[in-house]
User: Fold this.
Amino acid sequence: MDQRPRGNMTTPAAAASRPLSRMRVNRIFDALGAANPSPATELHHSSPYTLLVAVVLSAQATDAGVNRATRGLFAAADTPEKMVALGEEGIATHIRTIGLWRAKAANVLALSRLLLERHGGEVPRDRASLEALPGVGRKTANVVLNEAFGEPTLAVDTHVFRVARRIGLTSATTPEAVEKDLVAQVPKRWAKAAHHLLILHGRYLCKARSPECWRCPVARDCRYPDKPTAPGVKRGFRKEGEEAGGLKENLR
Ligand code: SF4
Assistant:
């Protein structure tokens, strides 16, 4: 039998690839924001410079691992001048516990030198100058512009990429294209917070292997087709109120 769609009939695949309505996108970010009203980076820092160094160190490393390493590093050097004085070997001593430490030590030293040479020791506030620093790509620049300077940039890391695709905010397959889709849709009032809201949601609830959809505040608007039920709860017998659990509560 010919099962091709006729006339106005829409296939499930076509429906899933349609953009979410503005109303649903608003509802998603309102729910994420209500669950986590003050989202912020979990990387410890005390200035734009220490934030920049922490973000450079965080590539392919956990925030907790970076925080353990920077505790000693920033006690020894929390300015470009002190970092240059510490030298590559001195930096390496503090960050050996995180991945790619050799390359990262070299980058932290080189970017500190460049900050002194080109920017008077300050972290620049423009993307081009940031991306010209060793070890700094688009994602790192976006995080620094957002967290240190309050710009409405949206860095796409592995969590943001996964969460945005699962919810149906994008079907793009590259970080740059996902960023473009998100920036075009995120409501203005959530533009500055969106990056952290999506990261924290992915880190603690919409996890890569086992999303906890039964307590997700955006489950009703999320298009992910394989939502698991709570452990011990059969599909169709979810307890009342389980799905509405807040992210803030879940983060504790
Ligand atoms: S419903 Fe599940 S897949 Fe969708 S955002 Fe929530 S946790 Fe992620």
In short: The CA atoms of residues 31 and 217 lie 6 Å apart.
